[in-house]
Amino acid sequence: MNPHKPHIITEGSVQYTLGELKDNQMLYDFDKMLIYLNAKGKLLFGKKFKIFEEDRDIIFKLCNYFIRDEANCKKLNIDIDKGILLSGPVGCGKTSLMKLLRHIVPHQKSYEVIPTRNIAFAFNNIGYTIIENYGDKRFYCFDDLGVEPTGRHFGKDCNVMGEIILSRYDLFLGHKIKTHATTNLNAKELEERYGNRVRSRMRQLFNLIAFDKSSRDKRD
Question: Is 57 inside a domain boundary?
């Protein structure tokens, strides 16, 4: 990747141009971005991957967020300084999109996608150190937030991801460190799972981008 031309991305022998550089300003083309995302998705997830027409609105929001298009984000009511909470039914493509979208901005610092169940299991083994580990300044996307089991270490229960969200909120306030997440749960279910305090922090941490609850399962 040429740091002076981040809109030009090469995958193997194919070059994708996602827009143009004009007067020192990057002008991205959404249709060209979709072509790249479709191709990159096949490389990452297999030949059956495709971008669905019904998901264009969601992907449009995510693309504008990741390329930091302030004008469009303002129209879409997206705060580019916050993270993304991508919600929707099981199998609608949340995790794939969060793994995929980071590739359109190779010049930006990326994030690691971590299943929340893995974090809960790690807590069961090593205890509170795991909460400290995820309270660092690295970027994360916590996958499947809300369906992880309750942590248990030496007989003591802990709402592990709730504690980590509180730590990430402090990082956001102090250092503007973003956090992303995906979830199958709605706002009411998240509050039941984590409590009012954590839910309140989540509102300040995340932009909520939601698939329609009738979105189809794309795993077949």
Answer: yes
Q: Into how many domains does the chain fold?
A: 1
**pLDDT tens-digit series, residues 34-86:** 999 999 999 999 999 999 999 999 999 999 999 999 999 999 999 999 999 99
Distance CA 61, CA 153 (A): 40
In a domain, 150, yes or no: yes
Do residues 113 and 141 lie in contact, with contact meaning Cβ atoms separated by under 8 Å?
yes
The answer as to whether 216 is a domain residue is no
User: Hey, which residues does 153 pair with through a beta bridge?
Assistant: 156
Look up the CATH number of the domain holding residue 48: 3.40.50.300
Q: What is the pLDDT of residues 4-34, one digit of tens each?
A: 677 889 898 999 999 988 877 889 999 999 9
Which domain, by its residues, includes 187?
8-210
User: What is the value of pTM for the model shown?
Assistant: 0.92
